[in-house]
TrEMBL record:
CDD domains per record: TM_ABC_iron-siderophores_like
Source organism of this protein record: Kibdelosporangium banguiense
UniProt entry tagged with the keyword Isomerase: no
Descriptive protein name: Iron complex transport system permease protein
Main location as per UniProt: membrane
Transmembrane parts of this sequence: 56-73, 85-106, 112-131, 143-164, 191-214, 235-261, 273-291, 303-320
Amino acid sequence: MVLPLVAAIAVLGLAAIGSLLVGAQPVGVGSALRVLFADDRSDAAVIVHDLRMPRTLLGVCTGIALGLAGALMQSLTRNPIADPGILGVNAGAALGVLVAVVGFGVAGFSGYVWFAFLGAMVSTALVYLIGTAGPPTTAPVRLVLAGTAVGAALVACTEGIIFLDPKAFDEYRFWIVGDVAKPDLTVTGQFAPLLAVGVVLALLLGPALNALALGDEIGGALGVRIARTRVLTGVAVLLLAGSATAAAGPIAFVGLVAPHLARPVTGADQRWLLPYSAVIGAIVVLLADILGRVVLPSGELRVSIMTAIVGAPFFVVLIRRKRATA
C-alpha cells in the first residue's frame, strides 16, 4: 500500500511541475528551476511566481479537499456515486456568494470566500438536521434525500435573486464556473487552515468508517459511536468541500472520480482509501487545469469545464457497471 501511494505522490509532483511549465507562454524546465529559487524579475519569473505558482497551489489544495470529501461522502451515505454536492455544499455556497454581492456589495474572490463558506455551512447543517431525524438505520438514505431537497430549494432562491437583480449575475458568473486561476495566494491562504483541519479530521475517522461500513449494529458492537462519527464526517466534508468550493467555485466530478480510481488499489479500507483519494484528487485537478490551457488554439477552458468533460463519461460508465452488477 505504501509504495503505490509514494508513486501517486511522485505523479502529483510531476503534475505540479507541468502546471508551472505549460501555458500560453511555455517556460523551460531550466528557466523554471532558475527563477523558482532566485530573486529574479524576468518574464519567466513573473509567469512562474505571480501566475502559475498560486494557480498550482490552489489546484493541489482544491483537489486534495474534493478527493477526500468525495471518499467521505461515499462512505457516509453508502452510495458509490455520491459526491459533496449531496450535502448541499455547492448550492449553499452559491447562495452565500449572491448574498455577499447583492446584500453587502462585496466583489472579488477574497471578499466573498467567507460568505460562500458560511452558505455551505448553513446548508450542510440544515441537511443534517433533516436527514438525521428518525431511526439511525435509515440515516444514509435520508441524508441523500434531504440534500437533494435542500439543494433544489437553495438553487431556486439563487435563481430568484439573479432574476430580481440581474447586475448580481456579472459577479456571480465568474465564481459559478469553477477555476483555480487566481491572481495571488490570498485565497489559498484563507483556504489552507480549513483544509488542514479537514484533512486531519478525515484521516482520523478512517477506522470508525471501516467499522460503520459493516452496518450500524456491528459498528456499534465494535465500539463506534455512530451518531458522533456521522456528525464528525459531515463536519469534515463541510471543511473540505465547503472551503474548496468557496475558494475555487463549484468543480464537479473530482469527488466522484478520485475514490473510484483509488479503490482498485486500496479496496474498501478507509485508512488507505482516504489518503489515496486526496492525492488522486489533486492529480485530477492539476491535469484538468493543464489540459484546459492547451486544448484550444487560443484562450483557455476553465478547470470545472475540463473535469465535467472527463467526469461525465466516467459517471455514465460507472452507472452502467453498477446497473449491470445489480
